[in-house]
Amino acid sequence: MTLFDELEHIYQDALTRLAAVADSSALEAWYADALGRKGAVTLQTRAVGQLPKEERPAFGQRANEVKQALETAYAARAEAIKQEELLRDLEAGAVDVTLPGRPLAPGHLHLTTQSLRQLYSIFALMGFEVYEAPDVELEAYNFDLLNIPEYHPARDMWDTFWVKGLDAEARLLLRTHTSPGQMRVMRERCPEPIRVILPGKCYRYEQITARAEHQFYQLEGLAVGHTITLTDLIGTATQFARLFYGPDRQMRVRSSYFPFTEPSIEIDTTCTLCGGKGCRICKYTGWIEIAGAGMVHPVVLQNGGYDPAEWSGFAFGFGVERPSLTKYGVNDIRMFYGNDLRFLRQF
Length: 347
Ligand code: FA5
What we know:
Layout: H1 3-20, H2 24-34, H3 40-46, H4 56-92, H5 111-125, E1 129-130, E2 136-138, H6 139-142, E3 162-163, E4 172-174, H7 180-189, E5 194-203, E6 215-225, H8 230-245, E7 251-258, E8 261-270, E9 287-296, H9 298-303, E10 312-319, H10 321-328, H11 341-344
Parallel strand pairs: 1-5
Antiparallel strand pairs: 2-4, 3-4, 5-6, 6-10, 7-8, 8-9, 9-10
Helix pairs in contact: 1-3, 1-4, 2-4
The structure holds adenosine-5'-[phenylalaninyl-phosphate] (FA5).
């Protein structure tokens, strides 16, 4: 076979193999075999030196034509393969609309919201309506009008977050308890009798521990009428404890001090976490304090517009997270707002 025949053979063979190439990696291999530095066409072209001088130009010209033709065929095949591969990718990635969907887990109410709603329905049974008061409060409502003037040592009971940049006459703060709502409802409703609960978030600049957060909910209660006594307060608290915790839970009342109630009491229930034996949540007493309460102080009644000679009232302030701690056996209040789904999903 002459060099010319060999060249034609290489050419035809390359065309046949190119037609059978199915993907881009095989195409690159084909290019290296045919037209690469050590490819068949390239090697054949280099053999020109073996020919007699007069045949060399014709051979060189034919070799160039073959190269050109193969380059053109290669470009056409490359484009076709690109299209085929694109089509294959699209088909493989296509969405199968007949497949069943993946279910999304529905969320649910936070434990605090659940507790608040339960508290609303318990107090609704006893005739209390919900009254909402602001979180950002005037110093006067949070303290002075509740019989806690500036420099009163009782202010130390509520370490305060102040709201900056306002004039000294009307200082604002984040309410440290829900009691300022008492003053708002009294001033709005006077001279009507009152029976309301006031839920809301409270803020205290204090150390966070297993039983104390610096943001937490309270549920205030206020009843004002002509014949209200301490017995009504204790009866209401007892009924609450039965409905919230169940009939077996024990409750006790201790005398206490709040500037806005006289007399003042604190209400405790037995700690279920330790069964009354003592643990870090109940500070090893077996009891957990759930509310401060008392008979509305005459000065506070007066500030609210009610004549203490004719009116009397009781008030209480329950924590919301703390009763839930003992009810559900949670041993750290920080779990409530730690956003750990493993905790939240349990309720
Ligand atoms: C008060 O805040 C009074 N305003 C309650 C009151 C209202 C007394 C009406 C008399 C009449 P005290 O600071 O004790 O009181 O808080 C009341 C309840 O809020 C506590 O029993 C507790 O359950 C909850 N509480 C207080 N501090 C925290 C805290 N840092 N984290 C979580 N709960 C708290």
